[in-house]
Amino acid sequence: MNVQRLTASCRCGGVEIEAVGRPIAAAVCYCDDCQAAAKQIEALPGAAAFRQSDGGTALVVYRKDRVRCLRGEAMLRTLKLRDGSPTNRRLAGCCNSVMVLDFDDGKHWVDIYAARVQGTAPKPQMLVCTKFSATTPANPDGIPTYSGYSPKFIFKLLMARAAMLFSK
Question: CB under 8 Å to 118, separation ≥6 — which residues?
Answer without folding.
Answer: 7, 8, 9
